[in-house]
Design brief:
The chain is an all-alpha fold. Helix content is 68%, strand content 0%. The radius of gyration is 28 Å and the shape is globular.
Length: 616
Amino acid sequence: MTLSRLFRTLSASALAALVSVGAARAAGDTTPPQKPAVPAAGTLSGAYLAAKTAQAGGDLATATDFYTQALSIDPTSEPLQQDAMFAYLADGRFKDGVDLAAKLRDDSNVSKVARITLGVDALRKGDFNAAIAEFDIVNPSDLDALLLAHLTAWAELGAGRVDDALSRIDQTKGAPWYAIFNDYQKGLIADVAGRPTAARAALQKVLDDQALARTSPDAYLGAAEALARLEARAGDKQAALKAAGAGLAVAPNYTPMQALRDRINRGETIEPAVASAQEGAAETLYVLGQAINRGDGQQVALLYFQLAKALAPRNPALLTALAGIAEQAQQLEDAIAYYREIPENSAFRRTADLQIGLDLWYADKKDEAKTHLERAAKDYPDDVRAHTALADIYSADKQFDQAAEQLDTAIKLSKADDADTWNLYYQRGIAYERQKMWDKAEPDFKKALKLSPDQPQVLNYLGYSWVDMNRNLKEGLDMIKRAVDLRPNDGYIIDSLGWAYYRLGRYDDAVKQLERAVLITPMDPTINDHLGDAYWHVGRKREAKFQWERALVGQPAPDADARKEIEAKLQNGLHDHGDDETNQAKAEEGAAATPNKDAEAKGTSILPASKGKTSD
C-alpha cells in the first residue's frame, strides 16, 4: 500500500519526532494531566531548540509545552505554527491542533492536514455540512481519497442523507484494496441507518472472501463483529455465531470476538458495533491507521489514531493501538495511561491489565509490576496469558521455581497437543534448567520441538545444552547448525554455534562463527567475550584483549560477576587448559551452561500484540 501523501509536507524535524514519540494525552481533552512544569525558555530560539530537543528524545508532551512558549513569543511564524500543529495533534492536544489548523487552512504546505483536522472537529461538533466542505480536497492520493470519501459518507449520514452516504461509498473506485474497506464501511453505515438488509449484504461480502483478511485483518474482524452483533439484535443466534466464527477462523485467539461469542451464547443484549456518525468516522480513521501502522507509516497512523480519539475518546481498540505505539517508542508511562483508560466492561480490559503489569516491569517498577500481575493471575485464574505473564516476570527476577509453577498452571489450562503451546514448554524447560533440574528440563525442550519442530530458539537451547554437558554431541551440534540455518542473521544463535565449537576444542571453527556473530551484533558483551576467548586459544592474544575490552563497554553492560571475570582475563589471560577443565567439571556435574541469554529471549513474548476492534 502506498503511503498517503496527506502528511508528506511534514518538516524533517517533525517527522523525526513522530517516529519516536508515544502518544500522551486524551484527544479532545483540553485540560492536560498534572505533570512537572517545564522551565521557561525565555527566548524564541531557546524555546524552539528546547522543543526540538524534547522531540528528539521522544518527549512530545514537553516539546508541545515549549512550542506553546515559542508561539507566545512569536505567534505569527508559519514554520513554527506548522511544526507545533503536527506536534499538538500527535500528542493528542486536539484543541490546540485545531486552533493552529484554522490559521493554516490555506497554507499550501500543510493545508491537507489542516483541513482534515478542521473537518474532524466539525464532525465531532455535529456540524456535518461544514465537515463535508473541509473534506472536499483536490488531487488526493489513493489512501487520501479513500479516507476522505469515507469521512464524507459518515458526515452525510450525520446530516440525515442516508442515500447520499451509501452512494458516496459505491462511487469510491480505485485500487483493488479499496474493496474490503468500502464494503465494511457501507455495512456499518447501513446498520446505523436502520437498513439491516443492506448492512447484512455488505458485511457478508467481506466475510465471503477470507483472502481479504490479508489486506486488512482489522476490517475483516470488524465486519465479522458488526455482522454478529446485527444478527444477534435481530434474534438470529445461529447466524450471529456463524459470523463470530468467521472472525475466529482468521484469528482464533482474538479475545474480543471470543467474548462476543460467549455473550451471544448466554443470550445477553448485544449493542451495535457503531452507534453514531462520530463513532463510524473514528472507525474509518482507526482501520486505515492500522493498515499502515508499521515502519514509516506509524507516523501517519499515530495522527489518524489521535484524530479518531477526538471523535471516540473511550474506544478500547483505539486506546490499545495508541498504547502499542507508545510501547514501541519506549514511552511506557504513556502506554500504561492509555491502558488504564480502557473501560472496565470492555473485552480489552483483561489484556490491558496484563500489559500494564509488563510495562510496569520494563519501566523499572518491579515490585508494583509483580503485585499487579499476581493480582491479575488471581482475578483471571483460567486465563493462560495471566499465568504466563506472571511467569515472565518471575523468570526475569530469577525466581525460576515460581515461574515453573505458573507455567505448570498455564500448560494445564492449554490444549496439550496444540502447536501454539510449544513456547510454554520451552519457557518451563528454561525455568527447570536454571534450577539445575535437567531431568525435568530436557523433556520439556523435546516436547516443544515435537509440537513445533523448527523453532530455532529451542533447537539452539537444547543443542547447546547437550554440547555443554558433553552429551549427544553430534545431535546437539546438528541442532545448533539447524537453528543457524533457520536464523542465518541472528548473531546470538551464531554465537551459540561458535561457543559450542569452543567447548569442543575446535577453536578455528569457533573463531570463524564468533567473528560472524560479532559482525551482526557488534555491541553484545557476551559475544565479544566469547570471541576474545577463542582468539586467545588460536594465538591471537592482542586481538583477544581488544575483544575483552569491548565486552566491558558492551550493551547491555555485563553484570558484576561477568565484569570481574573479563577483568581477570585482561590482567592474566587464559590458562591453556584451566578453563577447559572447568567446563568439563560443569559437564560432569550435569549443569548446562546457558546459551546466550539474548538468543533465549528472542521471539518468546508471552502476550501477542492485541488486535484492536471496538468492543463493549
